[in-house]
Design brief:
Elements: H1 2-6, H2 8-13, H3 15-34, H4 41-66, H5 74-91, H6 96-119, H7 125-144, E1 149-150, H8 172-190, H9 192-209, H10 214-240, E2 242-243, H11 250-261, H12 273-292, H13 298-322
Antiparallel strand pairs: 1-2
Helix pairs in contact: 3-12, 4-8, 4-9, 4-10, 4-11, 4-12, 5-6, 5-7, 5-10, 6-7, 6-10, 8-9, 9-10, 11-12, 11-13
Length: about 325
């Protein structure tokens, strides 16, 4: 194992990412053997629909976890964005483009709210995110009068928005998601904001003593997360059209699982956008594989919970070895 880690190719790509790709391939082959229908193109497109919105949630929470924080509100906030913007579209007749902008603004608003409380008021991230989760659910229910919202079908005049997911059988959404992931990787690894976010997770007090305004950069991580959650909402409705109030909790764990599995440390200071992307593909493949086998979706919840525990355990173990 030590010799493998010293291999120049392995060092450049990262052992964790190589192992994740191997897991992804093994899972795909195993599900294909157990269920021949799993190889169908429709199954692949269905899995990609899951990848898009979950991927944007995972990318967003990667920035937050990199600071040493956490955000359990991303799922309900995504639904809140989709419900409020969709209600404005269907009940108030706002144009589709404006509805998308409203989704982004709602996500951005929650990101600023969470970031301000954590960074400037020093409220623990766990408490802030739990409060925001309830606020998002309540706000969406009040705004829509506790009714579900259905975005326009592809056959309608406003249905063009669904082209951001696929055009015919071409998965356009995959290219958009990967493009945004590349931008996130550049921000996190090549810019000042990314370096400060990672430094905050490593040693916040040392960064503060060096003269850096840690509050601004910590809040920035939550703002980026909120914006990506707003984008996730657009991709969710582009794939599934109908949104109901009071839901979204289950996507919190899945997004965090994809993020942590990909190599982002729950203690902060270490994050991998490419690892997050692979982790999201594993979660989506697991979800689609379980459905292809005719199993209850609850099995996915069990497996996802185990994945989170295992990923955090290995992260803690790795840090102990380094220390």
């Amino acid at each position: 194992m030590e010799n493998l880690k010293k291999n120049p190719i392995v060092k450049k790509i990262g052992l964790n990412r190589i192992l994740l790709v191997c897991v992804l391939i093994i899972m795909y082959v195993a599900f294909a053997i157990m269920s021949p229908t799993f190889l169908s193109y429709s199954r692949i497109l269905s899995a990609l629909n899951y990848v898009y919105f979950l991927g944007f949630l995972s990318l967003g929470v990667t920035f937050v976890i990199a600071t040493g924080g956490i955000d359990f509100s991303i799922g309900p906030v995504m639904f809140c964005c989709a419900l409020i913007s969709g209600f404005c579209l269907t009940n108030y007749g706002v144009p589709m483009v404006l509805a998308m902008v409203i989704s982004l603004l709602v996500g951005l608003g929650f990101g600023m709210f969470n970031g301000y409380l954590v960074a400037f008021w020093s409220v623990p991230p766990f408490i802030v995110s739990m409060a925001s989760m309830n606020i998002a659910k309540g706000l969406a229910s009040v705004f829509t009068k506790a009714q579900s919202v259905s975005w326009p079908q592809s056959t309608s005049a406003e249905g063009w928005y669904r082209n951001i997911v696929k055009v015919g059988n071409i998965p356009v959404g995959l290219f958009i998601f990967l493009g945004v992931a590349v931008i996130c990787a550049i921000i996190l690894n090549k810019t000042k904001i990314g370096r400060f976010i990672l430094c905050l997770g490593s040693n916040k007090e040392a960064v503060r003593l060096s003269g850096v305004n840690v509050k601004i950069w910590e809040m920035a991580a939550y703002v980026i997360c909120g914006l990506l959650v707003g984008i996730a909402a657009i991709f969710f409705v582009s794939a599934y059209t109908t949104v109901q109030p009071g839901y979204g909790d289950q996507y919190n764990n899945e997004a965090i699982a994809g993020c942590v599995m990909g190599g982002t440390s729950m203690a902060g200071g270490l994050a991998s956008i490419s690892g997050t992307v692979i982790g999201v593909f594993i979660i989506a493949l697991l979800q689609e594989g379980i459905l292809a086998l005719g199993m209850n979706k609850n099995y996915q919840l069990i497996i996802t919970g185990i994945i989170v525990i295992a990923a955090v355990y290995f992260d803690v173990l790795g840090r102990r070895r380094k220390n």
